Fold this protein.
Amino acid sequence: MVCGLLGGAFVSLTYSDVFGDLFSDDGSDENWEDPNEDIIAAQETMVANNPDSVEDILLLANLLGNTGRLGDAIPLYERALELAPDDTAARVAFAQALAAGDLNVDAEFQLLRALEIDPDIQQAHYYLAELYVAWDPPRTDEAIAHYWTVVQIDPTTLIGERAQTQLDTLGAGSPPASPPAGATPQSTPIGTED
């Protein structure tokens, strides 16, 4: 009997009674609020108070880029790079935002620039490989070369493991062996042979 009463109570409730118009698709977004707006507004205040803080600028750029506001984020990334042109982490973050916005050539430029500054940035190699795999048409050979570099830098990191998984998926096997860290090639200087 109790189950019948509860069942009747649930049947009489409609979807809109329970959820209102939360999931309706009537095309109006006027009542929708971005839950990140308070965070973004607070970070905008931080940047206004510290206009030369690369850290604050990058945090705001990342917030905007990650919430689909790439057009607002790009000038902030550019400002951060004006202040710290050799900041490879900023270049990698900028490249990720650009790639998410399908600005692949610009993303490639930032990643290659980061690698010019420091050729051992595992994240830059990995995201460049990912970019090349997603390229239309895919640039598979270049992607494989960068995945191999990621694994050679450090196969024990999460990104190193992911690169190895991608190499396996692409049928590229294991990266070529590299000399142990700190090892120097053994050669005999010219003119010193016995």
Summary: Residues 70-83 form the longest helix (14 residues).
